Amino acid sequence: MLIGIDDTDSPAGMCTTYLGAVFAGKLREEGYSVDSMTLARLNPNARYKTRGNAAVCIETNAGEKGFDLACSLVDELADLSCERTNPGVAMAESPLPSWFYTKAVTDFLTIEEAAEFLDENGAVYKGWKNGRGLIGAAAALSASFDDSTYELLAYRHHEEKGERIVDRGSIFLAEEKTYPHTWDSVDFGNNVVVCVPHTPDPVLYGIRGESPEWVKKAVSYIKSEEPFITALYRTNQGTDAHLLDARIADIKEDRSYRIRGNVSSSPSTGEGGHVSFLLSDEPGISVRCMAYEPTKEFRDVVRKLIPGDEVTVCGSFKGGSINLEKIEVISLAEKTFAKPPVCSCGKRMTSAGTGKGYKCRRCGEKSGEAEIVHIERELPLGWYEVPPVARRHLSKPLVRSRAKN
Ligand code: ATP
């Protein structure tokens, strides 16, 4: 049996992955199997998400008992007093058709569509309040990952809200010992620990990596307060599952895209340090691409682009612009500037007036031709990404692609 759960947390606390961990612990205590634990991140632009838009699926042999246990844990742990917490639990014998998950990670679904999908496929389900969590619960039951990664999460008790005790040095050491097989525990460039949240939820830390062995190895270096519980999830994090290949003319708000085109305006730095430029993939059609201030040094790459450069951009289309997650520089336009030519007498000419060419102030010779100077571009071709501090859960870190090559 597969049991999908979503929408149990609120800005004040809780986390659906924690509920999944407690659920798995109780199943084992009662002698049932926990055959797999899946964490599916869904559309990062979903309107009602609390934090990372996560839904979980637990595979167990507990049948109806498992469903009842999951429901009683939702009653006990979900923050039902929060208007935006609308849990859903759904159970099916085998994975449901994957189109629903694909749509949930790249697009939008309604509560009615989720209920209809669950009905059509013979799933048992329960929704609390408006039942919005059934969308995520159904997506978890239909999750089929072309690519997957693992996250080992350590939790404190959900009632604890104080400062988390995790030794900073030990996390840097864990990353040093296991990178590139684990990633995003720290951001070396910005000297920041990334895997310990600052939100009031039960997550103590989460280590992301390519296999259960590597995340466990990383955790073996971490010194922290004793976790209340841990869980190892297979996930779609770090896989780019949210990206759709698209042409600019077809993109829609709150979906995420991979678009190939040409830079059509010089990058400019706006208020707050955000850097933006226009990308075009056919005459007269363009979209603004933004590298926001939190993307830190990534903005230096964006500032080096010039009109005519051919690039692939990845990111969500939000508020009328693509929020860049990464960019591939495919080819560079020539960067030149025109300066007055050198006269046959050896002196550099000067402008003879707007549209009048150049004139030598020494011998009076005239020329209509400027000297074109080629400027060396300081931007190697290839992919560039935002640093770990700014990475979204679903974005595939470049190191994952490199490790496979
Ligand atoms: P939690 O830890 O509780 O999972 P979260 O940040 O993942 O927190 P939720 O509180 O689960 O966010 O809220 C997300 C809500 O949006 C859920 O009710 C989920 O069913 C719904 N949802 C997820 N993806 C989509 C989508 N593609 N279209 C519409 N609704 C969605």
From TrEMBL:
**Which Gene3D superfamilies does this one have?**
2.40.50.1010, 3.30.70.2200, 3.90.600.20
Q: Indicate the segments forming the TiaS FLD domain, all copies.
A: 131-242
Provide the catalytic activity annotation. cytidine(34) in tRNA(Ile2) + agmatine + ATP + H2O = 2-agmatinylcytidine(34) in tRNA(Ile2) + AMP + 2 phosphate + 2 H(+)
Q: Which CDD domains match?
A: RPA2_OBF_like
- List each copy of the TiaS-like TCKD domain by range: 3-63
Family assignment? Belongs to the TiaS family.
Record protein name field: tRNA(Ile2) 2-agmatinylcytidine synthetase TiaS
Which organism's genome codes for this protein? Answer: Methanolacinia petrolearia (strain DSM 11571 / OCM 486 / SEBR 4847)
